[in-house]
Write a structure and sequence with these properties.
The chain is an alpha/beta fold and about 300 residues long. Helix content is about 35%, strand content about 30%. It has two domains: about 1-215, P-loop containing nucleotide triphosphate hydrolases (Rossmann fold), CATH 3.40.50; about 225-285, Alpha-Beta Plaits (2-Layer Sandwich), CATH 3.30.70. It comes from Chitinophaga tropicalis.
């Protein structure tokens, strides 16, 4: 079952198309990565999915029916990149206020807050003002405030910003637990290693258009370059490794990284070394990272863009 279906969505501003005929689905319980360089249209997409903006064209289905911003908004938790905590307000009072905005009664809200504050070990922060907290501490309060009402759809925009490795891991485990319990998560970030580790599916947008979408594992397969890492039982000399079956990309001692030639297969590689009585101790394919796919696809649609600016 798909929790979200986006159909031919379009949003125009005065000078450009922010979202240009984009369609995709988000299966229930999945962790869905929304990727793209700055200005690609990600924020506009998120604001339409949450009902902040209305599309100029197309529709959004929520649980199989048209999204209703008045009734469905309570089923969504949204943590934007620009955090929305009140700096002068005390942490406990703010969490209680935000929980009640999401429809929780005061008694239930206090119970939820106690549970999450205990779990995140932040009960001592109750009477602190938000401005007294570090950016990472504020991030934890924001995350708790976003998930307290058990949303069906959780939207996280750069959720690890300002967090140290320990607290990043804490939030990451909560994301996995929420997904296992049926919460659907849209995860937007510029850190591709997090996408690869966390997301089941992704969509890549650039200049308002969808570049690709699908399962992370399948995308890595689709963009593989037939590169292999080979461990040998002894360091070969040049005559032993030279062959038309593959190109040597890198050699480090007895380990080779090679690219398979067109018309050749992996058996040809193995037979080559067997012919020289060189034992092969390890052999595996190197798939491209999501970061490599991201850069390649964005550069194809925007040749002037350099990787360092993404």
């Amino acid at each position: 079952m798909n929790l979200i279906e986006v159909k031919n969505l379009r949003k125009d501003y005065a000078t450009h198309k922010a979202v240009d005929d984009i369609s995709f689905v988000i299966p229930q319980g999945s962790i869905f990565g929304l990727l793209g360089p700055n200005g690609a249209g990600k924020t506009t997409l998120l604001r339409m999915i949450t009902g902040i903006f209305y599309p100029d064209q197309g529709e959004i289905l929520f649980k199989g029916r048209p999204f209703d911003s008045h009734t469905d908004i309570h089923a969504i938790g949204y943590m934007p990149e620009e955090r929305g905590l009140y700096k002068k307000m005390k942490v406990g009072e703010q969490a209680l206020y935000l929980a009640q905005l999401k429809g929780l009664k005061e008694k239930e809200a206090r119970e939820k807050i106690k549970y999450w504050f205990d779990k995140f070990e932040i009960n001592s922060w109750w009477n602190k003002k938000v401005e007294e907290l570090s950016k990472g501490m504020q991030q934890k309060v924001q995350f708790i405030s976003t998930i307290m009402h058990n949303p069906d759809l959780l939207i996280l925009d750069e959720p690890f910003s300002g967090l140290d490795p320990i607290n990043s891991n804490l939030i990451k485990q909560e994301i996995f637990d929420l997904s296992r319990n049926g919460t659907t998560i849209i995860f937007s970030t510029h850190r591709m290693e997090q996408v690869e580790e966390i997301c089941d599916r992704i969509i890549l947008v650039n200049k308002g258009q969808k570049i690709l979408d699908g399962e992370v594992k399948q995308i890595k397969q689709d963009f593989k370059q037939h590169v292999f890492r080979i461990g040998l039982g002894q360091q070969p000399n040049f005559a032993q490794v030279a062959t038309h079956h593959f190109q040597i990309i890198k050699q480090q001692g007895a380990d080779l990284t090679v690219k398979l030639a067109d018309g050749s297969n992996t058996n040809d590689i193995l037979k080559h070394f067997i012919g020289y009585n060189i034992p092969v101790t390890s052999f595996h394919e190197i798939l491209p990272s999501i970061n490599e796919v991201f850069i390649q696809q964005v550069q194809q649609t925007e040749p002037a863009l350099q990787p360092a600016t993404i």
